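Office hours follow-up: a student asked to see two folded examples consecutively, so here they are.
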Amino acid sequence: MHRAEVLHGLGRFEEARADLETTIEKGFGHANTWSPWRRIDFCLAVGRLQQAQADLHFYVERGVQNAVAQAQHDLARIHLLSGRSEQAVAALHDAWRVDPQEDAVLETLCTALRRTGREGAARRAAEQLRLSDEARGLTCLALTAETWQAAEQALNHAWLPAQNWYQYCTVVRSALGRWPMVDAHLARILAAPSARWIDLAELVGSLEELLHTSGTDRTRLAARLTALKAGCDSLQAHYA
């Protein structure tokens, strides 16, 4: 069980999955809830959305303590990646009722609201997120209000995990046309040993939204999107 955790942290997802399956089969101690949760992380990391969704329903249906909000949030992420934006909004509202302090839920809600055409509500959610995390809030806001320079300035001073920082900067600097920097960010994201399929797929979704905003160099952005999608497909195929 603990070896699976270490292997997962090292990005050795296939070895982690094998240990997780063994742990679930043995079914001892707290592994009954811990192991499916780690398997969800593995499935999201390699793009196995159906298996992840099945395990997430396990948590939601059983009301597992301290896990329902996260489960609803991850279900919403799957809905968004599958083009089910209205279902994502519903799942996020459920997650927010359980844990109204979770910034990650609010950030995903901004995306879901934008994609269902509720731009006013998306702006309000982004402004609320900005109160607790200026860089993430401004990045979300920029996709509706186009406050790109303010978002870039906030990111320059933000303390974020490296992978998240590069993803946000890729979106913001694509909007600003800083293509050499965008290429450097994408190269680093795709080369990271711990790159996760769901993070790459969500970045694809954000850049696809950006294609429809005013002032975007669509030709150059489309070329970067093609490379990023190829990276997603390659990672998913590796674990197919």
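And the second, which I mentioned at the end of office hours:
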Amino acid sequence: MADIPPAAVDPAVEPAVEPVGGGAAGGAASVRQASETWESLFRAQVGIMQRIRQDPAFKDLPIREYDVLFNLSRCPSGWTRLNELNHYLLISQPSLSRMVERLEARNLVRRRPAAADHRGIELALTEEGRALQRRIGSGHVQRIREVLAPVLNPGEMDQLKALTDKINARLGD
């Protein structure tokens, strides 16, 4: 799900740019520090995703398609607009539309014209889609634990979650 390239910064050369903003500790991050932090976060995410993609839970459904089902399972009303779903995925709108067609053909999702604007499309899981999402999700969370638990203790997981939650809140997620 990470199709964004890492920052390309030569670690031997500090960019001639002043630090911006103030962090929680009151100091400002340099461009190098921000770049190295991004690079580390990106590489960790890639490494984790490479291991998770090998999970046998994804033999019935590719991880990108599972991601659609997972995000639909989190919709409080059960329905969400296609463009709102796209906000949570690293996939283009046309690619998502084609993926939804495939998922609909497998009877995993259903779609309808948006209630407020008939030009838009709303999506929801079918019962079959919900059952598959739960089945895959059950194995998926175990695999996530198998990948993270040997590396991070529970306190470190809480700390990492707090930091990524802070980033997401600032980005408006």
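Two things to take away from it. Residues 1-22 have pLDDT under 50 and may be disordered. The helical segments are 31-53, 63-73, 82-86, 93-105, 127-148, 154-171.
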